[in-house]
Each structure stands twice: as structure tokens, then as C-alpha cells.
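S1.2 Input.
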Amino acid sequence: MLSLLFFSSVLLPAELDDAIKAIVATYQSTLDALGRGDAEAALRMDTDDWTTRVVGQQPRTKQQNAIYVRQNPKGQALPPGWTVFWRPDYEHQGTGNGLQLYDVQLKGTEAIVLGLIGGTHIEKIDGADHEVWQGSHIRDTWVKTAAGWQRRIHEKLTINERMVDGKTAPADR
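S1.3 Output.
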């Protein structure tokens, strides 16, 4: 009975699990489209009223962003080998290379997605190997539409952040 209680506490409700799988797949197919140079397929991920907000910058609309995506779709793609993946609790499970989603809050037909976008490498610090991640924290708001899950708001919460072994660290080290 104890093991049943333990496993039920770590399993996700089916609706949330389905949303996570669909959102991860949508992010990945969008990145794959960018890698192929298919800007139009990549732009379908976002709703027509999509906006992006980056700390310290003016918000941009989908129409403003589409200019950059259409000019150089491959320049918008993640580096080769980077992927989209679900890995909650990065402080204990570690970070990876790409777009790592670690929290999804489902509220009806809206999902708030928290993630890390960046890369991880091993670095010697004070004579010991440490896992170092550099990138940004993001928060995306998704809505469930007739076409499936689409992103409505993209927020880059940090820029050039650095974490050592899952803990925030000074960027200048």
C-alpha cells in the first residue's frame, strides 16, 4: 500500500500529462521546422495575438517577430543536438542542452509553462568538476485551440543566467 501511495503522488493526472506531451511535441516540431528553414511552419506554433517579452526590452508582436523568422529561420533554431524535453526538478535531476520544461500549470484551456533554454557543460571550479548551465529562464502561456495547443505569450525572465549544480551562480565566474 505504501508503494502505491508513493507512485500515485509522482504520477501526473492524465490531462496534465497529455498537455505536457503535446506542448513538448509542438515546441520540438517548431524547432525542427526552423532547422529546415520552414518559417511558416514554425510560426504556426503561436496564436495571432502572440507577444514576446524580454526583460529590459519592448514587447514584440507576432507580426514584428515574423519578419526576423522569415528572414533567417535557421538562425532562430537551437544549436545542433539541442532538443526540447520535460525534466521537472532540475535542481536534483540536472540540466541539459536545449529547451528544458520543468513546470506546467494547467488551468482549463490555458497552460503556464516554465523552462530553461540554454546549455550545460562540465567545468572545473576550485579543482572539482561541476555541472554548469548557461541560458535563460522562460515562462510561456499556452492556450488550447481547435488546432491544438498554441503559445500566446513568451517571456524571457532572465538573460545570460548561470547555474552551477542547479543553483544560481554569478555570471562573471
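S1.4 Remarks. The longest strand covers residues 128-145.
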